[in-house]
Amino acid sequence: MNILLIDSSARVETSDSRKLGERLATRFGEISGATMCRRDVNQGLHLLTEAHLEAYYTPADQRTPAHNELNQVSDVLIDELRACDRLIMTIPMYNFNIPTSLKMWQDIVMREGETFDTTPTGIVGKLMGKKAYIIITTGGTGKNSQDNLLEPLTRLCLSTMGVEDQTYICADNLAFDMENSLKAAQRQIDELEI
Fold first, then answer.
1. Residue 137 counted as an annotated binding residue
2. SUPFAM superfamilies given for it (predicted)?
3. Among 10, 45, 78, 95, which is disulfide-ready with 104 (CB 3.0 to 4.6 Å)?
């Protein structure tokens, strides 16, 4: 089983989302033969430019060496997604939204013809058969608040790419009740059937 762990917190040592993700990764590590690929989306990604979009949409047989160079990061990230059986994403809420680094990752991996196709009947994801575990942390926003945009945005992104089996773990309102919220999320992780 191949596991891809994607961390998006700008914090490293003090990140609650990373700690919860590591807890789940440790559970997967106990499975015989499991391999772990780790991706910190704060490192090595780029904003999309017009040149990137041109390279993404140029058919493979018409790409220049410059196009291939521009596609290099995207190709690596998409290969990581294709190779994984299980996806773990850790997402802290920043200003009611996902971190900028995770948005960059989404923009880089959501490529027509690579992770989804557009058909006359709608979008069809190409990454079927994967299971995703999404760990969300919030400071002052409740899990069920209308201000919590992380789950619907992430659900849409993953579903568009064909990842329909999604489990959400949320440690919310950490600014008000950190201990109980973290304990509840840890318990949910410990009780998951993986």
1. yes
2. Flavoproteins
3. 45
